[in-house]
Design goal:
alpha+beta; NADH Oxidase; 40% helix
Amino acid sequence: MEEYPFVEHHVAPRSEQELSERAITFYQAMNTRRTVRDFSDKPVPRHVIDDIIRTAGTAPSGAHKQPWTFCVVGNPEIKTAIRKAAEEEEYENYHSRMSEEWKKDLAPLGTDWHKPFLEIAPWLIIVFRKVYDLEEGQKRKNYYVQESVGLAAGFLLAAIHQAGLVSLTHTPSPMNFLSEILKRPENEKPFLLIPVGYPAERVMVPDIQRKKLEDIAIYYE
């Protein structure tokens, strides 16, 4: 296989003060991000979603395989089908699959098997991981698929927040129904279901705190 041509990469020089200001400004903006379960049905222009997904597509990936597909659902009938199937799985989770410890940990967040946001949010973005690529009928291996798609999902959530919208990372388990409803090929597996839109009026979120720096970082200087 031919090597990629290499081009010079230009990074704008920044003073220490600029680095500090940019880092703290971005942190402060991202620290206002919250998971939201109550959405408005106010429309969000498709071109905004397009640019959010373009940002997700800038994430690094193993061997630059970019092993992801973003399925964007705005069709009400498809959203209804997704909600119905998701609630069936979630009902089973809450009533038989989840351990008591898991349910106890979720209890303070006020979650249950009802998922009305899947119909109310104007857009659902379903992230699929491509286990392998198909090129002219031949399987082509992808590398570090889980890690690569996880990075892209992180970029996606940051872009949603930066645009001024809210989101929820929904992981109904199992998620095979998404492949069936959206008629995705065998090499794609559902990874994450993300409702996107404006928050409902006077939306409420749990009063919880993020871990402090000293609880998540260890420095070796």
